[in-house]
Write a structure and sequence with these properties.
By secondary structure, this protein is an alpha/beta fold. The chain starts with 10 loop residues before the first strand and ends in a 10-residue tail after the last helix. The protein has a 6-stranded parallel sheet with strand order 5-4-3-2-1-8. Helix 2 crosses helix 3 (about 90-105), helix 9 (about 235-255) packs across helix 10 and helix 9 packs antiparallel against helix 12 (about 295-305). The chain is about 40% helix and about 10% strand. Strand 3, helix 3 and strand 4 (about 110-115) form a beta-alpha-beta unit. The longest helix is centred in the last third of the chain and has 17 residues, at about 235-255.
Length: about 325
Amino acid sequence: MGSTGAKVSPICLGAMMFGDPASPEESHRILDYAREGGINFVDTANVYTKQRSEEIVGDWFDLGGGRRNETFLATKVHGRVAPGPNGAGNHRYHVNRQVEHSLRRLKTDRIDLYYFHRPEPETPIAEQVGIMQDLVRQGKIVYYGTSHYPSWMILQGMWDAQKLTGPAWVADQPRYSLVDRSIEQDVVPFAQANGYGLVPHSPLAGGFLTGKYERGGTVPNDSRAARRADWLAAMTDQHWALESRLREVAQAAGCTPGQAAIAWVLTRPFVNATIIGPRTLDQLQDNLGALDVTLPADAIQALTDASEFAAKLPRT
């Protein structure tokens, strides 16, 4: 994990779907299967499914059997959880309260990696770093990080951490896939030069890279495109050409398009782990199959070339 000594599995299980649409029972099946498959990294947030995600993960820990001690647990703070001016943000007033709520819901005495879910320009970076350093000293968190931060903010935080004579943040959680490679413009070079961890989410681009969509075809009823027609309509000729190339690579590799897409992300030397977000056990099983896929060099290059346009997009 970045420049730390912590070891995490190359795939991180994201819990964004726990509680809605995945039931608590299905969520626990997903957690158990992932654990049996060697996944030791779980990611949630205090805003996912109106706090139910953290509660479901906490109930799973409560089942015992080493579930908590064998899991590297990440959660996040920033999003709105209450009305009023202080019901969201990265400031000390909000974070001090939310870490206690997350610990209670997760039924644990520590959070292994506590992210700021989004940048918040209104709160000085020194204050953001300072509160996290205090939580490390108190033993409530082990490491802390950022999500969707630009490189200049991360660097400023590293400087502030030195001035405050405490630990600095260790990793960022950006969006990254064949469809969105915009972090390669600044965050990736910065991270590689400074030993900063990268744990990107959305390797399947919201399902676009799973092979379940046909251009102009009928979309599955339970898919993202069924809920948001504008999302699929925004895909350009370049996106569909990439999707077609991905299918070809997957067929040649004997895997699904989704597995090939995840496998490509895992070939990137700057990726510590990538976060998947299955809502069913079947989806998880397919996603984990990516760990058994070894893409040949020409296939990796073909996908890199086909997605080159995605490295030039504005940062999201």
